[in-house]
């Protein structure tokens, strides 16, 4: 039954056993560790590049006047976008009572948390004097300037900080009942203590469950607007600037759609190998893939609409700078980025109209990789290519990234996946109690 | 002879042949060997060791102990620099700069300057308004010249071969040279100098030659061929038509600042006066003059004589039907015309220009040549060395190994010399061959004098004692004449006996000696050499680099990094050619091109430069000069100079390095520079600056600073940029950083071409910060590091900046610069460059944004002065660095709240416009449209 959200009829014991065996007994294949080692080495490269950047200075990355923003801002926008899918899955679908989300929300939330954490790191590293990043905070300290509330970067700072905190809270709240399960099933003293502390004294009483359900819904309600607001605020960095290619009112909704698009692509990038290697096919079914692909299709269409409207309005505005910007994107020195972006984000999207593609996990995986690349390039086209050709031609200049740029990008991926692997190892990757609940609901609904 | 104890001194007095006769012990003590003894500390101790045959154990231990003790004692000797004043020197108020008039020798001619000194260290150069060669303006070289004073690569010690020696030993050697050649009457002794106009040097050399009749003085000035005939001084102010025949009077020559001023004054189109001269240019390389012309023809070097001949014939009435020259002929015949040429023009063109001027009755004053004429040039010197006529040579201020023309083997000639004495600022290739090297003084630490382009004399006075063991050429020549103690001051003072003490002081204060302009002489006989015939094939034209000149300023790093006015290239020269020529040769920008002529082989990157005449390759001289331990920058093109053989141009297939600060030639159809024909002046009204606005209007109750830049007056010379760098402690970032778009110049001069790519029109636009009233940068800074001041400036607070660079992103003019690295990290306290810094301007650290603030330090100083005096700041009190440096007075700055201010009048002109006004940024810097006076439109 492909449209079932849980395959087979696992009992509670089976569900708990299968999910908790990974963190508790480390029942994971050996190659898991080899892959983890690979990502760990790349994560070390990330740390090395950060150290290099901090010691040698911001000039070691590919920045210049005019293009004083580069890879790192692209990375920020891209990682934040990736994070969005997690919040959408966990918060909005909870509110919409989409029960198929239950088996994928935990790792989608973890994905959000790690992605947003990495995304939040880049703007700080991108500062000329990163040691003073806290000057963006309205701290009542006399030696510090008060932040300029007109600056979108201040909004940004708060948007990302809020997002990290709320995501962390939401993720942790959902973990509490499962922590208690792990505590109860742990067989070593160390694990009992650690999971015991993390479970915050959860006893599973009806009182607990009642409070939990209410507060979980409330936090979900709190997190829901963030899906829209965070990326909208980041989009305002560009929208409120007057550079052609930045100065466009479509950016807030278009960035949110793009975020969901790339975020779901990342969910597939992780979910497809996950279900394969950990034997979670029963919990992450073809139904999940199909539904997720539909979300991608919808958000991808919106992104494509964004491209069309951007092109149309740059022509329709009659503004020579806007028109040149569009011409330069398509036919200038960086035109290949534009066409790769279209091929990945609009071209690959068309495959998702077919159900056969939507339910084929490995095909989805490949499409997701392509879309992730395309979405990264889309941000590059917006952030960097626009800057190389702005108002005054005497200051036009192409920009070349350095090895530090590449290693920071690659390293951030390594860091992300290394963290995901650690998460899979030490925490239940799938929400135990929700899957049990779901199974009961499914069984009872059938009965 | 050991210099050991006092008894040996007595022997010296007895044995050493004194300088002929001596009248007193004082006289005798002037001998160099005595001075060497005086200079050596503790002759007694040295004597004991001189006697001791091996040191015993006891003495060795004593010495060990003593040296330990003394090492500590040495620290007790306070360096003079840190001692506080016990008695405050008169007129020095710490923190308040002082200004002195002096003059900078440039290509041998004096350019009057006012040097700013902070507690005894010169930091900045301004033009001297009283000096005829400056009139208050400066050029980029003058602005960068203070850097040369503190240049860390300067030679600091006298050297004997490769060993460090002392000035006294150098003098002793000079005495030996003198003693050796005195009996021969100087035969075999030679002096090689560059272009020099110093009357003191002239007097000294004349006196020396009187004493040593066989002495030969050679002159090596590759850019200034010796002028035997009278030289012209032009009066451009009255001319309605100016024709420049291969004469770059705006960009080169000692009169360029005065000519540029007069040229600009003749073209200031305002409501009150719409008079404007018309500039015709026929030239063989693109020059600043050609870029500012209303009508320009660029011809390959061998073709110009033919065209000028046609022009001459047409002027004498013979019927030459060349429609191309028709407007020029009409304007020349209309009267009030003048023909300008330069020393680099062909002899035929120079003679033709003189003839045309005579026929036109042009306001040209002929004066006798000002430069010190030598007995021969470098070629003659090499010949004389080869023939054994010269054995000992003193080289001063030139680097003949670098600047030897084709086919002249200077190195082996110099190696044949018995003694080569070098005097110069750097350990250059010539110095490395020399047996003796004496460091030369920079002009800011020397006494000297020099002549302006019109012959007016100016005094050069030092602002600082020599930083190193440096001396002037005057002292060396005096020593060769037997006077070992005379200081440069006394030598210069002795030249100007016509001045009494009051007159001398007045001359020092004014920076020039009044009524010394050269007298008019009779024009040369109207003889025309035969014109050259146009040759086929590609020709190479060597031109001096606009900033390095003959290579003298190649070690000046700010000049390396200053964009060349036309090519905008930095850190290297290139083979410049027209797009058509490059296409014919199959070359693209930065492709390496190989120029082979005779035995010379030169590899350069290609630079496609619209406006270069077809079939011509232009290469700048002055590059590729080696000095110190570093590698030379650029390629040395001197070996091609005067190369007669055919030129073979080939490709190496490699890519060279071409670094430019402006990649795009074209304005891309954007409305950045407004141009208007004089006949249509003032043209359509610009976009009104008032745009709908959301933010409240700023209120500037006291002052509101504003700037106006006249694009018609701007000749694109880059003096303003060089001045900005010098005033605002802008760092030199190096070739790699400029290549990555990290240059740190707050002000730039954009150069755009328009029209036909093969005969383009050039436009320049200086772009400082616009100080927008609705500044896009201010809104986006998250930490309020860029804010609006009460007087309407767009200030940058370095200490607050965290380096998001959002301000630069949002700046439509891209005038902000970012410290991607710590560009000042090499300027530690031990580096002489730390003395260069303007104490009124913060030295910026890594990771902060910086920008032009209308020289806010000067505004603050004036405001403090105004507050103390309780008076408003008068118009003209504050001059920004760029404004002050501008030779054509294209920049006006002032308080736009003061309705009588000059800047208000400029902004009220109908051609006043704001760049990118449609963005609603409301810039405080506005431009006056560039007015063109094309002949096609008919004369106004």
How does this structure look, described?
The complex is a heterodimer of chains A (447) and B (940). Chain A is an all-alpha fold. Chain A has a single domain (12-446), classed as Formate dehydrogenase/DMSO reductase fold (Up-down Bundle), CATH 1.20.1630. Chain A is 72% helix and 0% strand. Chain A is built from 15 helices and no strands. The longest helix of chain A has 34 residues, at 152-185. Chain A is globular and about 70 Å long. The two termini of chain A are 17 Å apart. The model of chain A has no long low-confidence stretch (mean pLDDT 86). Chain B has 940 residues and is an alpha/beta fold. Chain B folds into five domains: 6-77, no CATH class; 158-226 and 372-440 and 466-486, Rossmann fold; 231-367, 3-Layer(aba) Sandwich (Dimethylsulfoxide Reductase, domain 2), CATH 3.40.228; 539-660, Barwin-like endoglucanases; 675-936, Alpha-Beta Plaits, CATH 3.30.70. Helices cover 26% and strands 19% of the residues of chain B. Chain B is built from 29 helices and 38 strands. In chain B, the strands form twelve sheets. A seven-stranded mixed β-sheet of chain B has the order 5-4-16-15-14-6-7, sandwiched between helices. In chain B, strands 19-24-21-23-22-25 form a six-stranded mixed β-sheet. Chain B has a four-stranded parallel β-sheet with strand order 11-10-9-12. In chain B, strand 2 (109-118) and strand 3 (121-127) form a beta hairpin. In chain B, helix 6 (140-149) packs parallel to helix 23. The termini of chain B are far apart. Classes of the chains: A mainly alpha (447), B alpha/beta (940). The interface between A and B is large, with 51 and 55 residues.
Count of β-strands of chain B: 38
Percent helix of chain A, as a range, is: over 70%
Query: What is CATH's topology name of the largest domain in chain B?
Result: Alpha-Beta Plaits
Average of per-residue pLDDT values of chain B: 87
Name the CATH superfamily assignment of chain A.
Answer: Formate dehydrogenase/DMSO reductase domain
Q: Which spans of chain B have pLDDT < 50 for at least 5 consecutive residues?
A: 75-81
Strand line-up of the largest beta sheet of chain B: 5-4-16-15-14-6-7
CATH class categorisation of the largest domain in chain B:
Alpha Beta
Second-tier CATH architecture of the largest domain in chain B: 2-Layer Sandwich
Percent of residues in beta strands of chain B: 15-25%
Helix amount of chain B = 25-40%
The helix/strand series of chain A, from N terminus to C terminus, equals: HHHHHHHHHHHHHHH
Number of domains of chain A: 1
Give the CA-CA distance, first to last residue of chain B: 83 Å
Mean pLDDT of chain A, to the nearest integer, reads 86
Q: Structural class of the helices, strands and pairings of chain B?
A: alpha/beta
Largest interface, counted with CB-CB under 8 A?
A: A-B, 51 and 55 residues
- The CATH architecture assignment of chain A turns out to be Up-down Bundle
């Amino acid at each position: 039954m492909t449209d079932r959200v849980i395959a087979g009829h696992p009992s509670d014991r089976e569900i708990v056993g299968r999910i908790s065996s990974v963190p508790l007994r480390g029942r994971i294949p050996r190659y898991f560790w080899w892959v983890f080692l690979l990502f760990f080495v790349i994560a070390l490269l990330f740390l090395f590049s950060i150290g290099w950047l901090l010691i040698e200075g911001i000039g070691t990355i590919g920045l210049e006047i005019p293009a004083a923003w580069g890879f790192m801002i692209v990375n920020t926008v891209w990682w934040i976008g990736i994070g969005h899918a997690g919040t959408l899955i966990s918060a909005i679908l909870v509110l919409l009572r989409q029960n198929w989300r239950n088996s994928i929300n935990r790792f989608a939330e973890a994905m959000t948390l790690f992605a947003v954490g990495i995304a939040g790191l880049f703007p700080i590293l991108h500062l000329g004097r990163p040691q003073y990043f806290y000057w963006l905070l309205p701290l009542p300290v006399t030696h510090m300037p008060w932040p300029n509330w007109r600056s979108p970067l201040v909004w940004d700072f708060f948007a990302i900080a809020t997002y990290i905190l709320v995501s962390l809270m939401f993720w942790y709240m959902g973990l509490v009942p499962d922590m208690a399960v792990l505590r109860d099933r742990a067989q070593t003293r160390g694990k009992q203590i650690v999971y015991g502390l993390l479970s915050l004294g959860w006893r599973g009483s009806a009182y607990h469950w009642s409070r939990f359900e209410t507060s979980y819904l409330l936090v979900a309600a709190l997190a829901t607007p963030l899906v829209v607001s965070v990326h909208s605020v980041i989009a305002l960095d560009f929208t409120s600037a007057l550079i052609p290619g930045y100065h466009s009112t479509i950016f807030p909704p278009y960035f949110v759609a793009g975020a969901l698009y790339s975020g779901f692509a990342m969910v597939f990038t992780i979910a497809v190998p996950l279900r394969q290697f950990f034997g979670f096919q029963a919990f992450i079914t073809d139904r999940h893939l199909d539904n997720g692909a539909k979300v991608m299709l919808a958000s991808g269409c919106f992104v494509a609409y964004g491209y069309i409207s951007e092109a149309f309005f740059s022509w329709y505005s009659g503004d020579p700078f806007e028109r040149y910007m569009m011409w330069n994107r398509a036919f200038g020195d960086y035109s290949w980025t534009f066409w790769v972006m279209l091929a990945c984000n609009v071209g690959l999207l068309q495959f998702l109209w077919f159900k056969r593609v939507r339910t084929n996990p490995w095909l989805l995986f490949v499409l997701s990789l392509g879309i992730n690349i395309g979405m990264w390039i889309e941000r590059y086209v917006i952030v960097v290519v626009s800057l190389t050709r702005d108002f005054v031609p005497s200051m036009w200049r192409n920009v070349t990234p350095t090895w530090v740029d590449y290693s920071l990008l690659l390293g951030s991926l390594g860091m992300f996946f290394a963290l995901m692997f650690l998460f899979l190892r030490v925490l239940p990757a799938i929400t135990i109690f929700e899957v049990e609940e779901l199974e009961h609901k499914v069984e009872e609904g059938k009965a | 002879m050991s210099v050991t104890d006092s008894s040996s001194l007595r022997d010296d007095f007895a044995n050493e042949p004194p300088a002929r006769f001596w009248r007193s012990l004082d006289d005798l003590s002037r001998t160099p060997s005595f001075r060497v003894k005086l200079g050596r500390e503790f002759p007694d101790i040295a004597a004991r060791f001189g006697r001791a045959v091996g040191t015993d154990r006891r003495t060795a231990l004593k010495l060990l102990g003593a040296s330990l003790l003394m090492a500590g004692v040495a620290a007790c000797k306070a360096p003079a620099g840190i001692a506080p004043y016990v008695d405050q020197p008169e007129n020095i108020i710490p923190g308040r700069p002082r200004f002195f008039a002096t003059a900078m020798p440039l290509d041998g001619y004096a350019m009057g300057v006012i040097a700013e000194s902070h507690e005894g260290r010169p930091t900045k150069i301004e033009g001297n308004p009283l000096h005829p060669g400056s009139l208050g303006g400066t050029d980029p070289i003058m602005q960068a010249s203070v850097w040369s004073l503190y240049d860390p690569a300067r030679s600091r010690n006298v050297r004997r071969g490769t060993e460090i020696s002392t000035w006294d030993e150098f003098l002793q050697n000079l005495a030996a040279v003198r003693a050796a050649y005195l009996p021969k009457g100087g035969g075999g002794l030679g002096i090689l100098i560059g272009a020099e106009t110093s009357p003191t040097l002239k007097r000294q050399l004349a006196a020396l030659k009187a004493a040593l009749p066989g002495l030969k003085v050679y002159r090596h000035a590759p850019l200034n061929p010796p002028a035997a005939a009278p030289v012209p001084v032009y009066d451009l102010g009255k001319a309605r038509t100016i024709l420049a025949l291969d004469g770059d009077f705006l960009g080169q020559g000692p009169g360029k600042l005065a000519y540029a001023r007069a040229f600009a004054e003749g073209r200031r189109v305002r409501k009150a006066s719409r008079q404007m001269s018309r500039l015709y240019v026929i030239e063989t390389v693109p020059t600043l003059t050609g870029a500012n012309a209303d009508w320009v023809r660029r011809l390959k070097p061998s073709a110009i004589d033919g065209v000028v001949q046609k022009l001459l014939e047409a002027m004498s009435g013979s019927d030459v039907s060349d429609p191309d020259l028709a407007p020029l002929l009409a304007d020349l015949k209309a009267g009030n015309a003048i023909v300008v040429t330069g020393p680099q023009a062909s002899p035929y063109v120079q003679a033709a220009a003189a003839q045309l001027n005579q026929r036109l009755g042009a306001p040209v004053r002929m004066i006798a040549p000002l430069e010190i004429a030598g007995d021969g040039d470098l070629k003659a010197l090499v010949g004389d060395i080869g023939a054994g006529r010269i054995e000992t040579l003193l080289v001063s201020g030139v680097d003949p190994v670098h600047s030897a023309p084709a086919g002249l083997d200077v190195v082996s000639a110099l190696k044949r010399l018995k003694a080569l004495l070098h005097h110069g600022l750097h350990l250059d290739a010539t110095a490395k061959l020399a047996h003796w090297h004496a460091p030369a003084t920079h002009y800011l630490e020397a006494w000297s004098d020099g002549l302006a382009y019109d012959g007016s004399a100016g005094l050069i006075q030092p602002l600082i004692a020599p930083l190193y063991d440096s001396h002037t050429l005057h002292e060396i020549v005096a020593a060769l004449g037997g006077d070992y103690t005379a200081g440069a001051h006394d030598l210069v003072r002795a030249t100007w006996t016509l001045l009494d003490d009051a007159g001398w002081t007045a001359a020092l204060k004014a920076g020039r000696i009044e009524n010394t302009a050269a007298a008019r002489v009779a024009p040369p006989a109207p003889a025309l050499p035969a014109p050259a015939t146009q040759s086929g094939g590609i020709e190479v034209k060597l031109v001096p680099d606009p900033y390095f000149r003959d290579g003298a300023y190649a070690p000046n790093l700010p000049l390396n990094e200053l964009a060349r006015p036309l090519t905008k290239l930095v850190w290297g020269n290139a083979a410049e050619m027209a797009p058509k020529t490059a296409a014919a040769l199959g070359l693209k920008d930065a492709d390496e091109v190989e120029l082979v002529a005779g035995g010379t082989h030169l590899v350069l990157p290609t630079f496609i430069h619209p406006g270069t005449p077809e079939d011509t390759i232009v290469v700048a001289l002055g590059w590729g000069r080696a000095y110190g331990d570093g590698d030379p920058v650029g390629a040395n093109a001197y070996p091609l100079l005067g190369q007669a053989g055919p030129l073979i141009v080939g490709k190496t297939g490699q890519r060279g390095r071409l670094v430019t600060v402006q990649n795009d030639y074209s304005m891309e159809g954007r409305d950045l520079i407004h141009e208007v024909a004089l006949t249509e002046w003032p043209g359509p009204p610009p976009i009104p600056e008032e745009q709908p606005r959301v933010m409240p209007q700023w209120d500037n109750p006291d002052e509101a600073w504003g700037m106006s830049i006249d694009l018609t007056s701007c000749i694109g010379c880059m003096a303003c940029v060089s001045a900005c760098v010098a005033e605002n402690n802008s760092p030199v970032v190096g070739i790699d950083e400029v290549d990555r778009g990290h240059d740190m110049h707050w002000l730039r001069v954009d150069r755009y071409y328009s029209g036909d790519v093969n005969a383009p029109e050039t436009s320049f636009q200086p772009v400082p910060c616009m100080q927008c009233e609705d500044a896009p940068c201010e809104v986006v800074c998250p930490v309020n590091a860029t804010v609006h001041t009460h007087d309407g400036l767009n200030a940058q607070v370095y200490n607050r900046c965290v380096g998001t660079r959002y301000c630069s992103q949002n700046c439509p003019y891209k005038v902000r610069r970012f410290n991607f690295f710590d560009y000042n990290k090499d300027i530690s306290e031990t580096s002489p460059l730390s003395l260069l810094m303007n104490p009124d301007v913060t030295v910026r650290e890594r990771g902060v944004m910086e920008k032009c603030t209308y020289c806010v330090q000067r505004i603050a100083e004036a405001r403090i002065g105004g507050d103390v005096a309780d008076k408003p700041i008068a118009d003209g009190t504050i001059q920004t660095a760029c404004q002050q440096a501008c030779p054509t007075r294209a920049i006006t700055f002032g308080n736009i709240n003061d309705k009588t201010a000059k800047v208000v009048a400029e902004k009220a002109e109908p051609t006043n416009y704001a760049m990118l006004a449609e963005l609603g940024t409301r810039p405080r810097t506005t431009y006056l449209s560039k007015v063109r006076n094309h002949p096609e439109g008919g004369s106004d």
